[in-house]
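Project standup — Tuesday

K.O.: blocked on the structure for the chain from last sprint. Re-posting the sequence here as requested.
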Amino acid sequence: MASEKTNSPYSLNAMLDFTTNNAGLLFLGVALLVVGFLSGAMWRENSMLKAGYAGNGGTPTAIADPNAQPGAPAAPTELTEEDWKAVQQDPVGVIGKDNAKVTIVEYTDYQCPFCARHYTSAYKQIKEQYVDTGKAKLLLRDQPLPFHANAKISANAARCAADQNKGKLEAMHDALFQNQDAWANLPTEAAIAKFGEYATAAGLNANTLTQCVKDGKFNTQIDADSALGTKIGASGTPTFIINGKVVVGAQDFTVFQQEIENALKS
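H.V.: unblocked you, prediction finished:
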């Protein structure tokens, strides 16, 4: 009888044998699930990189052309006159000449990798060909995304630099993007210390700037910028409005060139 119980398919020994013999299958199943999840995440990230856009859930805010190929730039949409007027009021600061014919408003997140990609590619050509020649001016606005831990303090750093000296906003803007990898993933205090280094390099008072950032002096203005951006459809970064027309993402220079040239002719 004892032998029969031992050999029963419901006996403890049989269950242990089953578990041992099927452990490999269980492990393989779990491994396949993990691989599937990671593959999906990599596909999503690659799709976002192709689109050059980071936002709330990665959903572009401009209306896409239904005939566009995957990864193609979204078709520019146009703001209402009221919204266009609103996004030009009280920006973080202006890069370029006030009387430039074309106004480019940029909603940015200094920790956003797509914003940094725009800075290292199209931005430099835009600045050289249109901003430095007096044809266009750039108005900066903040849209720190909630999943970027240091986005808000870096937005404060840029504003604190301008608060000390309006002419130094561009220097801090450039330093934050040029050195993004050096501060983006640091703990808060360490990141702020880096901002102090950039302030010193720009000829600003580092202690004053770092204290300004720690105090969150411009949090109210940053939150207002973010709210306005969400209201007008710039909830992701980078988002640009060129004389009222919206261009989403770190697009090729030619996309911006076409819109700027059209604005110059109008």
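K.O.: great, moving the ticket to review. The CA atoms of residues 56 and 83 lie 21 Å apart. Residues 1-12, 37-52, 56-75 have pLDDT under 50 and may be disordered.
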